[in-house]
Amino acid sequence: MKTLFERSVSGRRCSILPACDVPACAPEQTREKQLRLPELSETDISRHYTELAKQTFGVNDGFYPLGSCTMKYNPKINETAAGLPGFTDVHPTQDDAQGSMELLAEAEKKLCEITGMDAMTFQPAAGAHGELTGLMLIKRYHELHGNTERNVIIVPDSAHGTNPASSAMCGFKVVNIPSAPDGCVDLEKLKEACGSDTAGLMLTNPNTLGIFDKNIKEITRIVHDAGGLCYYDGANLNAVMGIVRPGDMGFDCIHLNLHKSFSTPHGGGGPGSGPVGCKSFLEPYLPDAKIVCENGKYAWQARGEESIGAMRSFHGNFLVVVKAFTYLTMLGREGVPEVARNAVLNANYLKHLLEGTYETATEGTCMHEFVLTLESLKKENGVSAMDIAKALQDCGIHPPTMYFPLNVHEALMVEPTETESKETLDNAAKAFLDVYAKALEDPEYMHHTPYNSPISRPDEVTAARHPVLRCQIDD
Q1: What is 76-330's CATH number?
Q2: How much is the pTM?
Q3: Residue 203 belongs to what H/E stretch?
Q4: Statement: 339-463 belongs to CATH 3.90.1150.10
């Protein structure tokens, strides 16, 4: 596909841009060299972006069971609310944006109630940025209490890949602990890992296998008894929000993915939002500035010298918070747990339809997602999880998460979310089963899928080692 610059034709114009409404700049302020911009008609531009849209796959295009990512439908009312002029025209340095400040304050209350936390910041720009923020709270806590020897974060083998990365970025050492045969945390291994150097534990519950750890209160107790703090990765909150609260499980801080559980757009490079909540004893360390309300008027108040300081400019990606607030307001107190129940119901329904043909990593009831293992199929027929995932693209389905979690060989992690209908799940199950049958019948065919997508099988090794990140255009 050609870029806009490659489509450019000298002298071609369009009338999309309005006439300039400010004085022209003085000659001495102009560029020494003319800025190169593509010269296109409105038709050229429209067709270019339509072609781009056709080459992407989003939740509006079809079934998107990307495990651990919660690719739910984004209600259009969220976009309507975020597009209101009172929100879009506000400037972050305004000190009289009372409506926007009230929304942030109310959003904090709602999210604290859902998570069981006492305070929250919206500064982090994404989930991983939230992880870093939460870990910095833990680090700050130990530093101010003279526990400088506590430099280890414990991470289960079923954790998200960003957990050890965020820990290392924050200056911690990472200790991985294995899962028990039931897929939950191995309590004995956890006890062995805990010690005087333990700063904390990072954990998501339910975990990436789609299992709610039955020992969660014991897990957080073990870490607390060792002097560590407990961090909740909120990636899988969609399965339990409104049902159980991480704060009640014993967690001290949490990050949320507003683009997952709370239906703001996911992917495409952002903007994201990864607010961080914490218990009251960690609140002084949150990023600088919090909203207070006195006599009905909202104002910003600095947190003080104990704060970890600003994590980014101003107060986070505000319009993303507007979308999440709209979603929660529409759901109401009864709707939030209904979302979680339907997410679990859909996952178990689809899992039931696939069991007997596909081998699952765990038996019994799952939560919001489940993991398939194609290990036997690969050994016996030479068809890998990658082959199955690619073949699903020809069925109009986005592939599940591949090769994750790392403790399951040839893994496909499937999360249907609560926004999919029974008819969609039935059609998806048929596609999964048809692909499996084709794998048994014609393994060679599977090695070259997909056949109907804009790109089939790129050279992934070359793409990883020699990525082309920018288009080279001759002047």
Answers
A1: 3.40.640.10
A2: 0.91
A3: strand 198-203
A4: yes
